[in-house]
Fold these 2 entries.
Entry 1:
Amino acid sequence: MTTPEKTPTKPLSVHDWDVLISDFQDSNAPRDWFTSVFSLSSLPDLALTSLLKKDFPLPSKLSILVFLDEFSHTLFPQCSHETSDRFIEALRAIVQSPTTDGSNGLKEQALISFTSVLVTVESFSVRHVEGVVDLLLALVNRPNHGFDRQARAVACECLRQLERGFPGLLSDVAGHLWTLCQAERTHAVQAYLLLFTTVVFNVVNQKIRVSLISTSVPLVPFNAPSWMRDGSLGLSQGLGADQKELRRVLAFMLESPYLFTSCAMMEFMGMVVPLASALELQASMLRVQFLGMVYSFDPMLCHVVLLMYTQFPDAFEGQEKDIMRRLMLLSKETQIYLVFRLLALHWLMGLLNKVVLSGEIGKRKSVLEMGQKFHPGVFDPLALKALKLDLVVQCYVSSNGLSGGDKSKSAGELLQECLVSVSDFKWLPPWSSETAVAFRTLHKFLICASTHSDSDPSTTRSLMESSLFQNLQVLLVDMTSKFPILVPVVVSFIERLVNCEKHQWLGERFLQTIDEKLLPKLEKRCLLTAYFPLLHRLAENDTIPPSRLIELLTKFVLSLVDKRGIDVGLKLWDQGTEVLGICRTLLSHHKSSRLFLGLSRLLSLMCLYFPDLDVRDNARIYLRMLVCIPGRKLKNILKPADTVSPSTHPSTFFTVQSPRFRHDPNKSWNLSSYIHLERVTSLLVKQSWSLSLPSLGVGNDGYSIIESKVQVDEIEQDSSQELQLLPDSRRIESGKPTLRVMDAKIAEVLERLRRYFSVIPDLRHMPGIKVRIACTLRLDAEPYNSIWGSQNQSPELDKVDSSSPALFATVLKFSSSAPYGSIPLCRIPFLQGEPHWDKNVTNDEGSLEIVLLENTPKEEEKEGLGGGASVTVELEPREPTPGLVEVSMEANAESGQMIQGKLESVPVGIEDMFLKALAPPDEHEDTIPSYYSALFNALWEVCGSSSSTAHETFALKGGKTAAAISGTRSVKLLEVPAETVIQASELHLAPFVVAITGEQLVNIVREGGIIENILWQEEEEEGGQATASSSMGVTGANRDPLRLTYIGYGDDQEVPMTRSRGKMGKIKMLMFLPPRYHLLFEMEVGEESTLVQIRTDYWPCLAYVDDYLEALFLL
């Protein structure tokens, strides 16, 4: 459906343009205030009108030009041909306007923006392109005119972009551009040369047959080439330009590189190098002309030389060492930026790779030997040190492989020289960057020459026999012995090798070396606390004999036994626990026969003489297990300790993930048959449908538009005036309240409502009101054991208790399609199984299920809901509607098996949304009943007739958002006795009763003693409501007794029914519906029937109230 075209009434003001540009930047589209008055296709016309106005501010014009350029894809594809013609005329008017203060900047921005639109938007024809090019050429055709040289340079750049967008566009006027380049003497000559170079490049690339030096076509007026007008490229293809002219033009270009900046030189060389290749020129000419740029300190110029080297490597024969030497010197220059120094190193590494891959062995040797001497300085930045060390490692490995032998004499010396620059790691913390760089270099030295390919199994063995590996072993042992702070890093270094399939032997060899050379040095030390992580790794490796480790631990325990004192108790417990942990690791990974003699002595020593009682008890347990339990069963018992022993070093080198049991989907698909999540309080109405109206505009913020009257919008506190173009329906956003004439009664009602709404949280800017549903999670033991009972890995433990399973670390995740916000998950540490519990589950055949009040005794709560774990589902409703909360569960079984699946959904009813209205914090406790009664009367009046308050808004808490109210009324006749109504109200709706009128009804309810702290009125005021409502307007003045009409089934006779028979009084109830709505009941209680008048400011809830009242009173 197309919307009718909207004609603009008047041009946009400066403020309107600011708001419109802000809307586009936020959502890439205009908002309602613009689309209700204008169409999107009229926006370019409005922009051109504002640009041509003389009294329009210059900054706003610049903003409009940038806006047209930024959103050209959205604005111009829908414009007409008249708008396109006007677009070209507007550019001509701006450029040819008289020069004033600041107009030069406007002209240049107009040239840039209009050219960008012309290049990016495809809706413009060739005629429009010709118009813009004609204007630009007229501006360019004034060489050496100093006053507008900047504008001419901008025009040249615009022409160059048009030539790049439409290749061959300026090919017919190439001769004129050649003349202009020779004539120009100002700094704009750079733009002229780049324009002419672009034209020549496209002529050669497109093979256009034109003359580059002379032409008979006039410069202006400009006409596009004929083949471009016809839309065919057939005439443009051929042999191309004359070769002599091309050589003459290229020679002219190569004489003017000194006229370019560094960025322009990049553009220039990007086109000249392909031209030279096409003409098959000698690359030595380019080398002689441009090689000197590598000695500059500009990274762009150096990059140009490197590009030439990669394009013509033969032309730079013998110059590789000079280029590499220059890059090495650049990386050492401390006065230039660090980024440039790092870039020079990256270039150098790329050149080394290129040289290594070449076939000349002599050149490779000389270059690699030069790079091997390139050591980092002590005061270099850390990033520079890392790159230099990588370069040294690369050169060493490449030269070592090239020589065909092992450079054993220089390996250790080179390694020591590299570590001098990062020697601070020896006393810095293990997590420092300096330490990471040092061990990263060691790792590169070790495995850089070893590939990860399985086709070369001898690589690792040859590396283990190399002198580099021997020197590195000695270095690690010395560092670990002298600097205990490096132990976590050494452990991470070894683990990285052990976890690699290719280099696992290297890691194991390192551990064997530590066991042989480091442990004897540690026997003389009394404190082994810093070396415990390393000792754990030694205990895990079953290829290392445990005798040295057990002997070291025995001497360490003997030194602890001699310690006494008050202040060493906790330290002794910690150290003793670590020793027992190492003993447990030994029991888990080694054979008992290999450990029995030495480990039994150690554990006996700790049982008898260790100062800490807890350590002695644990040592006694381990000793009994070692003596009494066979080795294989002992490993199965101690196996969980192996799975929960993470690394103590938070290293970034690698991450070791602990093994986990797989999830078995075949056993988890029917979790709901034996894991039950049930509500503590059953719903009266089990809702299986939910009313969802897209026209309500309910969003994530929880606010809606009901009957096009209710709006919730942000109040602009800083705006001092309204937009004149805003429609009337949006004027409630203004910060100034509208002055209206009203009586004192209406003013009192509005003031009471403003005070009340000021305590309701604003869901947009703060957490909303929570609705909590109490549930119980139960586990049936018998079905669970039949499915998961066989997963127990210990047959002996199966006989202990197979009828009472348990789940550990249960996590419940909730989600819902209803607007309940983000629902927090629930964690249950432990869930014990219960005997099987049968519950009669009814079949949901209809859309609604009425639960009888008589069938919900407390026995059900004792049998089904009394046990299990308590779970609270916390909702933050954006809309007070029923729905379903889907539940997914993750848990761990006793055997470690992962249990995942979905449980039955938790129903949410309309009664869950009933909350007590909020009271201001300054309201005294004694006046709370009268406050709620007055609030009920105010909401009753406003929801009944909103003609006088339709334009009133009430600020929510925080003052950033306001709400408007539009009410809806309904009525329900209940043919039930008064006793049923009173009992059901006391049982389910007592917290929401605010007032009771009528002497007979007051006496009955007071005697019950359930409903308290409300307003009691023994004499009902008949005229009070009529008087109050009569002041609200004509629509609320009719307060005659409501008469319902019942249409019989047998005939068409209408039978009138009065309100109720034997009227006893009224019960007034106020329910708050989060996030900000209300539901009001006024029950006229009779002896045999009750008439319920309903009013609400959220009319969709009426779809559920009728079923709720029937379930509450009729059954």
Entry 2:
Amino acid sequence: MASVRFTVTPTKAEDLPGLSDTSPDISSRSSGRGHVRFGSRESVNRSEPLSEGSGGLTTTGENETPDRTNTDQGDGNAKMSNVYINNSHGVDDDDFYDRNLALFEEEMDTRPKVSSLLNRLANYTNLTQGAREHEEAESIGEKRKSPQMGTFMGVYLPCLQNIFGVILFLRLTWVVGTAGVLQALCIVFICCCCTLLTAISMSAIATNGVVPAGGSYFMISRSLGPEFGGAVGLCFYLGTTFAGAMYILGAIEILLMYIAPWAAIFVSGSPDGEGAAMLNNMRVYGSIFLLLMALLVFVGVKYVNKLASVFLACVIISILSIYTGALVSAFRNGTVPSTFDLSLPSSEATTTLWLQFCEGPDLNASCDYYFNLSNISEIPGIPGLSSGVITGTFSNIWSVYLSKGDVLEKGSLPSPRPVHPPTNRLPYVFADITTSFTLLVGIFFPSVTGIMAGSNRSGDLKDAQRSIPIGTIMAILTTSLVYLSSVVLFGACIEGVVLRDKFGDSVKGNLVVGTLSWPSPWVIVIGSFFSTCGAGLQSLTGAPRLLQAIAKDNIIPFLRVFGHGKANGEPTWALLLTALIAELGILIASLDLVAPILSMFFLMCYLFVNLACALQTLLRTPNWRPRFSYYHWTLSFLGMIICLALMFISSWYYAIVAIVIAGMIYKYIEYHGAEKEWGDGIRGLSLSAARYALLRLEEGPPHTKNWRPQLLVLLKLDEDAYVKSPRLLTFASQLKAGKGLTIVGTVITGNYLHSYGEALAAEQTLKHQMDKEKVKGFCQCIVANKAREGISHMIQSSGLGGMRHNTVVMGWPLAWRQSEDPQSWKTFINTVRVTTAAHLALLVPKNISLFPGNSEPCAEGYIDVWWIVHDGGMLMLLPFLLRQHKVWRKCAMRIFTVAQMEDNSIQMKKDLATFLYHLRIEADVEVVEMHNSDISAYTYERTLMMEQRSQMLRQMRLSKSDREKEVRRPQQVCLFHSSVSIRADGGMSASENRRVHMTWTKEKALQYRATHSGCSTPEGFRDMLSIRPDHSNVRRMHTAVKLNEVIVNKSHDARLVLLNMPGPPRNPAGDENYMEFLEVLTEGLERVLLVRGGGSEVITIYS
């Protein structure tokens, strides 16, 4: 019988028959195009080459005898492993290889037996080590007037109005009297430096492009990303809201203490209850004021804006009256009229003052101990600039901190120490709170806030990038000069005891700073009242708009409702929420307790403004081109440090609460917020950090202690673009537990130019499936003409620098025996070879559909490890990693190893137990002895059936190829005859003769089919029946059968079995037999994980 000898030319491996097309476990759907296969058996003349696709084949003549030529694939090994080779061709090398480990014999030089490894690890000291978008305008289509406001009206004056506030009139004198001039100057200087440095950073950000509505929130969010932007934006919103509450409380304090004390609703019958009654009055009147102001803002912001100029005028007039009064005090008698008759009592009668301290008008009446031991004298409350009160021995330059309940007294005069402290029923002035430097910082800082007023009006400015820096910095310098000079004037003009009198009890209940003003204290009282009301209205106007801007960005889902408002855009719902939060501040009812709260929120906002500027400057992002050039990253970092220090100096517990609130908002946005790409600095910082880390990783291979599986998961998509084996991702997530690198890849067969859209859709499918399975990682889709090429490219090129995969996870080709197309399992084997060549580990879960999901924890059972050959310790490490996940946590670990006849199994068990002890891995150890036994008839028959089946499938595939060719060839003949041109004499040209000679005719096709009918002829059957199994295949089958028997016997009830995966044969002719060996090896096991190490140690006994 004639035969054809195939001699494969050394072209690409993809051109070999049966090694192309797609793999069912890896690539995506096949393109459906036909592939060239080698033709059927037929004698072919050398002058008549085969039809298309047959290049690289040579044939023998009809009379030549059959010859079986082995194909050498260039691995230097010429061992005969072809399925046609019978036993006579094999070499009896049982003495060289263990009969029970024949399946692994080709790798014994690189993957030693466990017994050999344990022998070498005598003292366990010689293990190898280390082996979006552009911003859209929110008011599209609205007709707006062209911005005409300049620096003075648009930035400078609004900043002045927002910075000057209630603290200047109500608390600055008390701060100076308590802290002294030097420490007061220090407090003011630190706070002003904080705002000045923040203003410099803000100017750089504000001039780096257009700043729409949202002001500081917009700047921070676009510079630091939605997480930081949302967290700091909400903190700034809360700070502005509590500022409104603070201003309202200040206005109520001025009203009830200095304008209309008779309007108090709650009046205490005893001096001890006056404080509580005052707090209740503050709560009631504060709630009423808040309601009225909220209604005014709701009716229309235009009324608030019209009143703004009136309120600003009140502030300026009040400040001018203070300076005028200080100058006038230098030329007038500074005595303040006394409330009581201070004349000393005579021997006959008593005075009004006597009645305040004694129980009756009689001279023998019982009097206060402090009063009896003291002399009464009158001193000027406002000595004036020329009095030298600031330079005396006990002058205002030094601090006098008091505890709650202490009596205010002049330090330069001797004071008796009574046995019993004075009580509130006597007309003494007491300290209402315990004071300290840190407390005063927290109370004063709100008086320097308000520097964002100019940036919030950027849309109304003629030249925002010029006006914002100049106007804001000039306003800060002006207010800083006013505060610093006020500290010096107060210390130089007012007596220290009066300065420490917070509520003016010693000056007939007047506002202390009002006693200094000219021409009347009422100028300060009325001016400060209206200025605080105006500041409260500004806060209630700005805070809802800030919340609306955050809500419209849609980064915090539960705030979406506050993005809506009235038809004209007024934030109704945001105003309602702002009023409710401000009411909480009013219920606190103490200006000194509310001030530190809003200080925290403002300081946090300023801190992140400085951080944004420093980050953008250091990263040198291409878009960072601010017109304001007088900034530097060191100034921004200094501003950050001052902000952080002030937070903890003023109130460390409030600082922690504010940071926790911001952190919670940050994490909420990170996990539940909308995805936004604003080109923020945090993204740039992440890129810089990633680049730095990748460059560091490039310095050398990872140490064994740092080794963990960095996975490349190969998936296949079906015809509808769905993932065929999603449980592979589930298994990957259980193995990784969110740590390390995970790359999920698939291959699309086709042309990249035509399949680009398909690749994008596949990538989205992978991302969706990864989110569903909670796999943190990256996805990659490669388009290639053949699946094998795509998989090879992916294995070679995935990852970047030191962040590359070291382990490949792929599925087992399902139903490969029943498939007519051999490409599925051939692609699988090719992937195993590529992985081995790349020195990567390989994990192949078999029966992946039976593996548990993330919500299906395994009951108590065992994870069995069959350690047959040493491959770097992968088999030890994988169960440990799996048991970190909740699904496998209840499973115990058992390790089995195989001992041969010449091994000492008892010593092996001891050595292995010691090895596991040093590895800190808890597992049961068992050594299975495999006795040398003769090859059974079952093994011989199983091998014979395997080879006969391979031969039959080969013949069937050849027959199918013949049928496909027969369908095409008659069409080619017809097309050819229709295209032949006949000459006039009925002949044809020489070229046409040659074309007819090279064309298949019907007779030739019939003859070819009759000669090469394969197993359809009796000769074909006799050929198959005469096959004798190859000796090496019998030995391998013997190993697979015996190991399978032992594994099934010991691990039939195990939840998971981990097993060394033998490598594919070096000769590709035995690939189909290799698949059969693996099937036999894992037969009868429910869940199997085949493991191949990458050639390096992955686990160590050292710390």
